[in-house]
Amino acid sequence: MHWFSRCTHCANSSKSDDDALCVLCSHSTTTTTIVMTRRISGSYIFLLLIEFLLLPKNEVASYRAVAIIHGVLTGSDSMDEISQRIQEKHPGTQVYNTVRYAGWSSLEPMWRQVEEIGNDILAIGAAYPEGINLLGYSQGGLLARAILQRFPQHNVKNFISLSSPQAGQYGTRFLHLIFPDLVCSTAFELFYSSVGQHTSVGNYWNDPHHQELYYKYSRFLPFVNNEKITSNTSTFKEGLTKLQRMVLIGGPDDGVITPWQSSQFGYYNVNETVVEMRDRGEYQNDLIGLKTLDKNKKLILHTVPGIPHFMWHKNMSIVDEFILPYLD
């Protein structure tokens, strides 16, 4: 099930006086979330219709609801397989697969996406006072983590980051997916500028050879990593340490997230030697609470070889072994 979705039969987003029917095709929408919007003073009000509220009490799921955030240049349909697997293995689970920022719009600035999707997460959480689980794939995992920090009042229990550039990105293959003419060694000239910071990729591009420019221009990653002290520093940490579990999944054959250890907060030093998470200052100084989570056995790392980047969310063995156990 999607939040802020459309009728799956005709793509219409309005509905008839009968809440269960699409106004255009009259198809039943009881298993599809429909959203009404009104334009008021230049802003949209989203009225979220939560399916579980319509269920008889004995049909309410025993599993927590799950919100999913897709990766860059894709959309909610790319996460359909994992959504269906969760519902197959955990019957009754309500799965909310965001349709926001699909395709090229996923390149919009990270903070913009954090604000909008973050408010969706809060709305879903409000409908489930017992708490929800959050899963993000690729760029979506970094967005999800930032949402937890930006909105520390969330009630997310388990956060699963699936092959996401949590410590940043510095790799040619990933770069060429979006900017085919750029090379790593000169990409900083674009990304560490006002223009470059209007792209999501520029917001988490972390060039180990130009750290001074990274700290000067990057408007996102150094802030959510608490590498820069701001008025939000303590709440950014609180939003993560309140988790029941943070699960970081990645592997050496990813081929896109570079270095792949970024999926587990490891990263390059100035010599492009990978420094593992527990050896980095961000962990040792507990800037965002990783050390606290680790000490309390709430930080879980899974390293899985043999999985290319575009298969993490499509490989059902990965879902069954490394995701489902944390969706309680």
Structure description:
- This protein has 2 domains: 1-49, no CATH class; 62-326, Rossmann fold (3-Layer(aba) Sandwich).
- It contains 12 helices and 10 strands.
- Strands 4-3-5-6-7-10 form a 6-stranded parallel β-sheet, with helices on both faces. It has a two-stranded antiparallel sheet with strand order 1-2. The protein has a two-stranded antiparallel ribbon with strand order 8-9.
- Helix content is 30%, strand content 14%.
Shape: globular
The number of domains is 2
Task: Give the CATH H-level superfamily of the largest domain.
Answer: Alpha/Beta hydrolase fold, catalytic domain
Order of helices and strands: EEEHEHEHEHHHHHHEEEHHEH
The residue-averaged pLDDT reads: 86
Topology:
Layout: E1 35-40, E2 43-48, E3 66-69, H1 80-89, E4 95-97, H2 110-127, E5 132-137, H3 139-150, E6 156-162, H4 172-178, H5 184-191, H6 200-204, H7 211-217, H8 221-224, H9 233-241, E7 245-250, E8 267-268, E9 274-275, H10 281-284, H11 290-295, E10 299-303, H12 316-323
Parallel strand pairs: 3-4, 3-5, 5-6, 6-7, 7-10
Antiparallel strand pairs: 1-2, 8-9
Helix pairs in contact: 2-3, 3-9
InterPro entries: AB_hydrolase_fold (IPR029058), Palm_thioest (IPR002472)
Pfam families: Palm_thioest
Catalytic activity: S-hexadecanoyl-N-acetylcysteamine + H2O = N-acetylcysteamine + hexadecanoate + H(+)
